[in-house]
Specification:
By secondary structure, this protein is mainly alpha-helical. The chain folds into two domains: 55 residues; 51 residues. It is built from four helices and no strands. The model has no long low-confidence stretch (mean pLDDT 91). Keywords: Membrane, Transmembrane, Transmembrane helix.
């Protein structure tokens, strides 16, 4: 009986070790696929970053809006201030912001 029990224990240990080997094998394969995917994505993003960084800056970016507004005559600035153009642009920007938030909230479905 003791021989049979020791054989069962040995067989159980062998089966468990084979099952563990198969599980570790599949885990290693899945980890390899994940590493390949992440490495590929990293290389693609590095390429996109390189392409974007190689685009030269446009010349008009050296000026700020304040520099451009300084050339507007004071009469035109007064007229625009009295006409409420600032509030109009505020409402337009709020509408655009609402539209963008709505698109993000619905995952670009609406």
């Amino acid at each position: 009986m003791e021989l049979l029990d020791s054989f069962r224990k040995w067989l159980k240990d062998m089966i468990e070790s084979i099952i563990l080997w198969v599980v570790h094998f599949f885990q290693a394969i899945f980890q390899w696929f994940e590493d390949i995917l992440l490495t590929t994505l990293e290389k693609i993003l590095a390429g996109i970053r390189f392409v974007i960084s190689s685009i030269p800056m446009p010349d008009f970016l050296q000026y700020s809006l304040q520099d451009l507004f300084n050339y507007i005559p004071s009469d035109v600035v007064y007229f625009l201030n009295m006409s409420g153009i600032a509030q109009a642009f505020l409402f337009i920007s709020m509408g655009v912001a609402f539209r963008l938030v709505r698109k993000v909230a619905t995952l670009f479905q609406w």
